[in-house]
């Protein structure tokens, strides 16, 4: 009431009529301003995260802005503002498809924590609806910092899609130690085998019918499906490629990961390089 009428009457006069101390009004006004500032930050962080961050990650981002806020308070503000995170925990389900019957063993053996960049790269594919047709995405992930270092889109789920993702990597392929995937038939092709042999990259395959052996790649696609694909409509493959490029740039440079101490993949890698130096 006082705030809405302060252009007409003095604050002192209104406080006197309402029988409240001026100090109480100023204290409450200050508290409201602080709440409004925090609300603005939460809304901004939420939308910058592609509407994916929940209370835990928003709290971490607020700390970077020198604001310490409880998750309970963040949750209340998010509820008031109608901010609902699309992020869900990864769930792995077995599925059947054409398989690679190679005798190649699982050299990775679920050692998903790696101490060096490019020591192990994992890959997988998923589908997305584009103009009423199924199109496909392939990504390559560095286990060291969960960075998406290569990707491709295409109309067919085949070895060429995998090869194009491999070719998209802006790094010296000779530095890759191990390449691990599931036993999808698209990963078994002379084109892929020759490329790996050329750069002396060791091969590793999950056990047949065991998606947990490639859990990081599975989890990455769970995130992509939830944060990028879910609820989106793409009119063309060109649009999908453009939007995916923007998302992966955010994923690598901005999206914080709990497994990386709430740093983005690039922040984590740069921090590691500083320690080495």
Please render the helix and strand layout as text.
Layout: H1 2-5, H2 11-18, H3 22-48, H4 55-64, H5 71-81, E1 120-130, E2 133-142, E3 147-154, H6 159-167, E4 178-181, H7 190-198, E5 202-205, H8 215-229, H9 237-253, H10 265-276
Parallel strand pairs: 1-4, 4-5
Antiparallel strand pairs: 1-2, 2-3
Helix pairs in contact: 4-5
Protein architecture, described:
With 277 residues, this protein is of the alpha/beta class. The protein is built from 10 helices and 5 strands; from the N terminus they run H-H-H-H-H-E-E-E-H-E-H-E-H-H-H. It has helices at 2-5, 11-18, 22-48, 55-64, 71-81, 159-167, 190-198, 215-229, 237-253, 265-276; strands at residues 120-130, 133-142, 147-154, 178-181, 202-205. A 5-stranded mixed β-sheet has the order 3-2-1-4-5, with helices on both faces. A hairpin with a 4-residue loop joins strand 2 and strand 3. Helix 4 crosses helix 5 (71-81). The longest helix has 27 residues, at 22-48. The radius of gyration is 25 Å and the shape is elongated. The N and C termini lie far apart (60 Å). The relative contact order is 0.12. Residues 88-97 have low confidence and may be disordered.
